[in-house]
Design brief:
Layout lengths: L1 H14 L4 H25 L11 H26 L10 H26 L4 H4 L2 H21 L3 H17 L2 H5 L1
Helix pairs in contact: 2-6, 3-7, 4-6, 6-7
Length: 176
């Protein structure tokens, strides 16, 4: 029965397009994330502003691929599958525990995936600063999901963050 409910929640989250007020609230959440995360990343040297050295066709291709993975796939798994869509239907303490567990799994998945699939970037993906920034992004995406009851605001936040980091803030150089 729980699996059926999760499937229904995920299907509803994928088909719900929030109204502009909800998008605005999620944008405020994203703004708070940026205000907190940017100084941390800049001071630690994880974010290094610069111009992208990509052709427009490379940006379109990589942008589409980044939309699918990590943004859409990770948000489906870590928000759509692991979190209840209707936060009001769950006791506050239970919701906090579920959200914290989902966030912990999300953060730990990054070094685990690097260790298994891209060992050359394990140092980056397991560094304390990277994990703090991943935690902040995950918390913002969790809040956006619970606010909107839709997967799309967290997908947009996740995608925009990764694209800007890779293209404009030195992320590509750190992954090579």
């Amino acid at each position: 029965m729980a699996a059926v409910r999760r499937w229904r929640d995920l299907r509803a989250a994928l088909t719900t397009i929030p109204g502009w007020r909800t998008w605005r609230t999620c944008a405020l959440v994203y703004g708070v994330f940026l205000i907190v995360a940017a100084p941390i990343g800049l001071l630690a040297g994880l974010l290094k502003p610069g111009a992208p050295h990509l052709l427009a066709s490379e940006m379109a291709t990589s942008g589409a691929l980044l939309f699918l993975q990590p943004a859409l796939v990770e948000e489906i798994v870590f928000r759509g599958v692991l979190l209840p869509r209707d936060a009001d239907a769950v006791r506050r303490g239970r919701l906090a525990a579920i959200a914290a567990a989902a966030l912990a799994v999300y953060v730990l998945a990054h070094p685990l995936n690097a260790w298994i699939f891209r060992p050359q970037v394990f140092g980056l993906f397991s560094s304390p600063v990277y994990l703090v920034l991943a935690t902040l992004l995950g918390a913002a995406c969790t809040a956006a999901y619970l606010i909107s009851r839709s997967i799309w605001p967290p997908v947009a936040m996740h995608w925009l963050t990764v694209v800007v980091w890779l293209w404009f803030l030195g992320g590509r150089a750190l992954l090579c």
